[in-house]
Amino acid sequence: MTVTYAPHAQPAAVTANGHTGQVHFDGTYITITRKGFLARASVGKGEKRIPLGSVSSVQWKPAGGLVNGFIQFEIPGQGGSRSAFGKQTTDAARDENSVVFTKSLVNKGLGRLDGRARDR
């Protein structure tokens, strides 16, 4: 995964490429974009903008050597559900408010995105 900071944006702007999509945080909005085959096959193509004030929680599951991780943004009224044991990442791959990533993608910087959203 590649993390890039927008040169002329607010200092908080960050973009992270995950396994099932891309996440951009500009300090005000979280934008999830689905590009590429895997991203489109799991959730469908398109873009979702979430105002930061609408996010009630951020769930971060770290990726391991053999399992993928994810970042998930919970929004009140959108029916967040609990996953069965061992199904969290599978469910996140189908969730429009989540992006799944591999351990190598985290090492390139996706973890910074979670920290910046929490700091707000």
TrEMBL record:
Superkingdom of source: Bacteria
Domain DUF4429 intervals: 24-104
Pfam family, one: DUF4429
Protein name: DUF4429 domain-containing protein
Phylogenetic placement of the source organism: Bacteria, Bacillati, Actinomycetota, Actinomycetes, Micromonosporales
